[in-house]
């Protein structure tokens, strides 16, 4: 407990002087001309010099944890519930010895940098300021430094001098962090209610350490500042070493408090602003603003010490001055220079001897283009006992941190104990400053322990890296690492913000790709590669003059010529060979294994709006069953494009909203048996069947395909694969820190997703001139189409077995040759097993999952910010309930960003290359009569050469693999440091290999291979 203490200054003043305190109210005469000039000079000096470096005492670093509510606005600093790094320099005003009575001071900075912070504050012990006028200030400072006589004269000149001297002096304190300090200044801001709010700060020590205020005896002669000689400490020493020890071993806490009062007038009265007037605590109680934990001593070196400046105030804050700026009370507002200049004997940390060790540091630079840096790189190591200074990593006559390099450095430093985290600083190197740091490894030669620090990020300034072992937040017991974690998230939440959408999956709040944070952009070669691919097709198309050709194709062969120029893949060839694409069996195969394999669903009962009759299907159904019986038996399926309903079309393009009935023949082939090019059975919507004229039937199938391309491009692919994945990416970056196992697991699966989507928004969906606008019949109305799609979204769609069941396509016996389904389920199980093993390593019970507040916030954001329910609850869970629930969610995410996207992305070149098979848009209205289709009318409906060329070029571009593609199961970035995770990854890779072999064996037995889910062709993330 802090002792109860009484300031007996007035009593002793009266005894000493024989004067009555009550009678001495005024300070005396107003300052004369000379004093006024001195006062002005002092203020000027203040404004010029009250900033810089103070090398006395001890600087500590730590964190301020801000309270949930504060009586003053946050001014961009005191954000509710946030944590900020802070620096505090403690020092004695004049003495080097702690045994001597002295004023103790503290400079506070929000931030951990050499530069001045947004609001640096100076504090001193004592509730009232001893700086009362120029003369006495000088006397006071001299008295403090050289002898008691002048200080005594000063103290006896006025009772308030005596009072403030007694009040502020501390004698023999154990250390600095348990004392109370005041700022004395009155600041103001205007509240929302337009009231002027005045406020003051203080910084107080917590705990049970006595403040060492002057004893009643000492108060009788407070000008005697010398040691009494009774204390235990050596007269040579000071409490610096004790203070150092206390900070590093116990992480003391202090409290930053604020006191406020509202006034209605436009200016604050002098008796409120006057720094020697202490505000009544009953009227203006001190309120907690932030608890401050002090964690490390900063090495007392010029390059490590913070620079403090007391002129800078955040926007919205004013420093209140007295109406009479010639008043001596005004001095306190300009006091800070005195705190820089009035310093006593030398007091440095060098007096403290430390045990030394050597650290071997391995630094691995990335292999992407421009991964290297020319900036000066330094490192500081933070451990359980201490921290090192910043060591510049530099090898003489060598280029450090070149692309792909592994550099090693030795540094000799005080041993820091068990290493907890490191800070990497980048300074200078304006050109080539960015640095892709893969990882750092530190080996303590003394203890023979090594520590891994995965990074795998672009660094542009300073980064704090915790050790690579994954820890759940509730299991992180180290108070410093808890704060490192919070700070990481606070930074990410500032950089990665939601643009919350209600009718679409939300995305990152960023208007253009170029404005994305560096770390969310592509590596440079990807950017170049993409430009190269576009250039390649542009040249090819120019050579063949397709881009300038605005006329129609002559016939199917003419289309094929373009196909041959641009693509020669195995599947593309199989489609066009022998006019295969015209066959009903091929239509069926493409429905199951093509680019949009998720449309088909079982049709169990006749449809009122699609009145297909048994008569229409005479000779088509092959089991001697009626259509209803075939439906019941599970042989009838449906392609329904109703999602296109209500989406406006371009004036010069046509797009129906078709329904297509499919039939599984006894031989297992799936074939189309009836097509209606509208959602109602109105007269104009004829039902087409294979009984129709061959060209009519082919034309009808082509109209289904043009609908399919629209639904695929925007819904199956863009919104379902890309936009849903972006939700996971944004939520993961914002809610899970580097040390979280789920972050480490998911980040390789979210790489470049935000980048590719930002590009897509500009290139594909950027309005007139963008690719979709030019290509598609709904150009310019894509958002409406996406909204229609998202309106149907349900969380269970991401659970692949459930999704197959929901569509009624989960029984291989009923619907054979659905290789997408079979492969997807194999991959789902394999990913599920992998996710399950990872989860088991870190979560031992459902309670572990429930108590993981970072994971729960992540899920909550996915629900509330990312995949917002539109009309009805879309089933997205608000929380993760159990270990098995977490396993399911992780499997869903990894499957969707890898396998699902691969299945609907990498076939675009194969399928879209041949225009008649998949026309991007039609130029004439759908047929309303049978028997009218001719080759000329067919060609007139299909895209012109220029549009088709663009569609083909773009499809090829969209399904190209990158040079640096990382495939499923490959984790070149070792985010996990644990050996157990290496084993789990190896097992995952082995399983994928086995699946790959099975798929390849199967493919050898079928006419057209299904290879989009071959593990070696499935990238880890949605990146194109
Ligand atoms: Fe894609």
From TrEMBL:
Please name the source species.
Potamilus streckersoni
The name on file for this protein is Lipoxygenase
- Annotated GO MF terms: heme binding; iron ion binding; oxidoreductase activity, acting on single donors with incorporation of molecular oxygen, incorporation of two atoms of oxygen
Alphabetically list the UniProt keywords. Answer: Calcium, Cytoplasm, Dioxygenase, Iron, Lipid metabolism, Metal-binding, Oxidoreductase
| Binding sites annotated in the UniProt record for Fe cation | 717, 722, 901
Q: Which residues form the signal peptide?
A: none
Tell where it localizes: Cytoplasm
Instruction: Name a single GO biological process.
Output: lipid oxidation
Cofactor comment: Binds 1 Fe cation per subunit.
Where does this protein act, in terms of pathway? Lipid metabolism
One cellular component (GO) term of this entry? cytoplasm
